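hey all, quick one before standup. I had two proteins in the batch that finished overnight and I want to keep them in one place so we stop losing track of which output belongs to which input. First protein below, input sequence then structure tokens straight from the run.
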Amino acid sequence: MACPDAHLWLAAILKELEAFIANSSFVDVPRPPSTTNVVKGKWVFRVKQLPGEPPVYKARYVAKGFTQRYAVDFFDTFSPTAKPATIRAVLDLAARLNMEIHSMDVSNAFLQGVLRELIFMERPAGFHLPFPSNSVWQLRRPVYGLKQAPREWHAKLAATLAELGFSTSRADPSLFLRTSPSPFYILVYVDDMILITADSAELERVKRELGSRLKCKDLGELQHYLGMEITRDRATRTISLSQGHYLQQVLERFDMARGTPQVTPLPVGHHLTPLTSPSSSSHPYAELIGSLMYAMVSTRPDLAYPISA
């Protein structure tokens, strides 16, 4: 690496490899026969930054899931995620009843699941690791990118919460609830959890239990969730959701931050033809629409018309 922040990326890479080792995610074994499928891997890099906080450099060594083979490397893959309506409903309930709303983040969540299939994976290239050059990894944990990884992680989390007395909601399998000793709700979106209860002592106890069973980070009172900023006024028992920072990042990612607002997307009377229309593959149109649709279903229903127009 020769970029100015190379040392930050290297630190992120080493942290990722340390997580693999700490979770006993693999065993180094001789390369199997050529008839055995060996899943390929790659590095994924990104910078994560929350409003008012310094950037965090993240590196993930992920499996190329498309190199897996059905009924050989994976079977069932479905894993639930919290519905937008459920998120709003539990926050509304917490605001009305003046309950505590805290959040926790699970570190390297997928690496804490249990892998049921026998899977071999290529080691990360470009590093002088203490393994034979012709060896591969036999995975013990469902690493990021495997098709079954989200499902196995959710199964692990659901089992852990069941041990703590929580049951799965019939309305949304991402919502876990408990009525005794006091009402307690936990909403899960992959590795991001919202914990809601009026019992502060029980809240701290459950957080300690989760921290001892899973590698969790206590984020305190909920301020951000899935790209949304959470603003709470306990005096009026209201909660506001906004995505100003998220939308600003969308504008910057698609080079539109300095764009001039237009009344219409194209000049009046403009006619599109195949010859004058650019290929959709050369413009990230679908990605932009998807990013805007997420804001639309989360906090900005006013975007529905311009997105669909």
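OK second protein, same deal, sequence then tokens:
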Amino acid sequence: MKMGRIVQVMGPVVDVEFEKGHLPAIYNALKTTNVQISKDKNNLVLEVAQHLGENVVRAIAMDSTDGLARGEAVADTGEQITVPVGNDVLGRILNVTGDPVDGLAAVKSEKRYPIHKKAPEFTRQSTKVEMLETGIKVVDLLAPYQKGGKIGLFGGAGVGKTVLIMELINNIAKKHGGYSVFAGVGERTREGNDLYHEMKDSGVIN
């Protein structure tokens, strides 16, 4: 396992120096220890985002860097960050490294997939234009969603974006037998907590 050391910490950005010829690849997961998080060893995961010269990488921390010291040892795992997949993750809240943050037991999953994956080739994508029936009349009539497409949902605070998303998740599960993944990127922890409890209370998550 390639070993390095921390040379600079700037908020969530951490620069790590390795020996020449041992530079980790972009997106590789690095592990180090931050005693402010817990007493466990290698409890902080970093993701390589940039190469700075021949032997320094710039990485993004996946947890708090408060108390992280220069000179701390860093290990290159040689692989990307992975998360568990399968039926066991349904209804669970996980952080970016796949650890549960809902206070329940650890996810027992046989498979783990990397968080970065190439898009499917065009030959594998459907060329048919089909409408995804959401079951929400105003959406299906005025702004129908295309199957396999992408859609932006814009609106101010408190106008009902989360309610609409909850309804979509509920309808897709019950009418289409599908699965939904809600990724709270840049969301406040409180909003994620509220969404989870609202979905539990409404039966969207069982």
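Flagging for whoever picks this up: Helices lie at 137-142, 161-175, 189-202. The mean pLDDT is 89.
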